[in-house]
Amino acid sequence: MSGDKEKDRYAAQARTGKLMSVIRVVAVSDNDEQRNVEKSKLESAFQECDERLDKLISENYEILTKTIQAYSSISGRIKTSRERIKQVKGDLNSCKELLHCRRDELKKLWLEGIEQKQVLSLLDQIEEVKGAPQKMNQYITEKRYLHATELLTKTVAHLEGDLKGVEALTEIGLEMKSRKEVGVTSPLA
Fold first, then answer.
1. Which intervals hold domain Exocyst complex component Sec8 N-terminal (predicted)?
2. pLDDT for 189 beyond 70
3. CA distance 109 to 1
4. Distance between CA atoms of 123 and 37, rounded to whole angstroms?
């Protein structure tokens, strides 16, 4: 079998060499008669090749048909896969853009959450400060001076810190500062 393949290869090389010599002769030749002879040789060689090709096709028709069908099927699958990949890339780009939008929205919501926590913290401090005079009187009447002192210190710290600009607490702030200077031993009026 390998001997047949070797013969076919040498024959193909010989035909290729023959074709090259015909081309050289036609290109160099000035004589129309010689060109016509070479042309007829070339035509007979082409006819011989056509016959061999027809013979090979008829001998290998089933294999050739299966190969063409397989190629067609593979080509179709590759085309479908390319289209899907293109669609997936488009979908991924859309998702990426949406994620950027979501990230911006989440960042905005996070900042709003922080602001709300700060506002709630300030409101809690205001409530503590508003209730501080009553609690302080209660601690003093119960003779819990340590708790009263801690409350006084904490309240003054709030009033001098975050709540410094709240005008509604000015009166309580003045009471607490005067109480701090006087001492914690007697109830507030």
1. 40-138
2. no
3. 79
4. 111
